Amino acid sequence: MTIPNLITIARLILVPIVIVMIMQQRWAAAFILFVVAGISDAVDGFIARHFNMQSEFGAYIDPLADKALLVSIYISLAVVGAIPSWLAIVVVSRDAMIVAAVLLSWVMDRPVTIKPLLVSKLNTLAQLAFAAFALAGNAYGIELGGLEDIAMLVVAALTVASAGAYLGGWLRHMSS
């Protein structure tokens, strides 16, 4: 067990705590824990790369922890009415589609390797930033005004573009 893996496991443990904070509308605690989780993601990646602590377990658990955090945050924020349900549905649907495609490729004995694409990295950044703004807005009364609608549309557009890019790659893989 490497230090980056332990940090990632700690991030996974934070997920249900952040969800409880959101459901109890303890916004400042939710925001702070979300930021801690985000920082931990950067730290574990930095340590893994720069100190040669990369592992197969880490390659699987790190993106799982990221997805668990983002999907949980978006669902929780939608449940309490802090973001529109349609946005949570778009975010969750993309991840469900990717997981289903990977599982189907394994079942069909044609495993596909998911490599992060530029659009997916931009998508993750936009999703993280919007979730942070939603939490901070509720915690500290920060108003984005019209920028909130633009940010939601950017998140939705990047999420759909990322889903399309992964789906296209998956279809090419499965038909070759």
UniProtKB/TrEMBL annotation:
<dbReference type="InterPro" id="IPR043130">
    <property type="entry name" value="CDP-OH_PTrfase_TM_dom"/>
</dbReference>
<dbReference type="Pfam" id="PF01066">
    <property type="entry name" value="CDP-OH_P_transf"/>
</dbReference>
<keyword id="KW-1208">Phospholipid metabolism</keyword>
<dbReference type="GO" id="GO:0008444">
    <property type="term" value="F:CDP-diacylglycerol-glycerol-3-phosphate 3-phosphatidyltransferase activity"/>
</dbReference>
<dbReference type="InterPro" id="IPR004570">
    <property type="entry name" value="Phosphatidylglycerol_P_synth"/>
</dbReference>
<keyword id="KW-0808">Transferase</keyword>
<feature type="transmembrane region" description="Helical">
    <location>
        <begin position="150"/>
        <end position="171"/>
    </location>
</feature>
<feature type="transmembrane region" description="Helical">
    <location>
        <begin position="71"/>
        <end position="104"/>
    </location>
</feature>
<keyword id="KW-0594">Phospholipid biosynthesis</keyword>
<feature type="transmembrane region" description="Helical">
    <location>
        <begin position="125"/>
        <end position="144"/>
    </location>
</feature>
<dbReference type="InterPro" id="IPR050324">
    <property type="entry name" value="CDP-alcohol_PTase-I"/>
</dbReference>
<protein>
    <recommendedName>
        <fullName>CDP-diacylglycerol--glycerol-3-phosphate 3-phosphatidyltransferase</fullName>
        <ecNumber>2.7.8.5</ecNumber>
    </recommendedName>
</protein>
<dbReference type="InterPro" id="IPR048254">
    <property type="entry name" value="CDP_ALCOHOL_P_TRANSF_CS"/>
</dbReference>
<comment type="pathway">
    <text>Phospholipid metabolism; phosphatidylglycerol biosynthesis; phosphatidylglycerol from CDP-diacylglycerol: step 1/2.</text>
</comment>
<feature type="transmembrane region" description="Helical">
    <location>
        <begin position="6"/>
        <end position="23"/>
    </location>
</feature>
<keyword id="KW-0472">Membrane</keyword>
<dbReference type="InterPro" id="IPR000462">
    <property type="entry name" value="CDP-OH_P_trans"/>
</dbReference>
<keyword id="KW-0444">Lipid biosynthesis</keyword>
<keyword id="KW-0443">Lipid metabolism</keyword>
<feature type="transmembrane region" description="Helical">
    <location>
        <begin position="30"/>
        <end position="51"/>
    </location>
</feature>
<keyword id="KW-1133">Transmembrane helix</keyword>
<comment type="similarity">
    <text>Belongs to the CDP-alcohol phosphatidyltransferase class-I family.</text>
</comment>
<dbReference type="GO" id="GO:0046474">
    <property type="term" value="P:glycerophospholipid biosynthetic process"/>
</dbReference>
<keyword id="KW-0812">Transmembrane</keyword>
<dbReference type="GO" id="GO:0016020">
    <property type="term" value="C:membrane"/>
</dbReference>
<comment type="pathway">
    <text>Lipid metabolism.</text>
</comment>
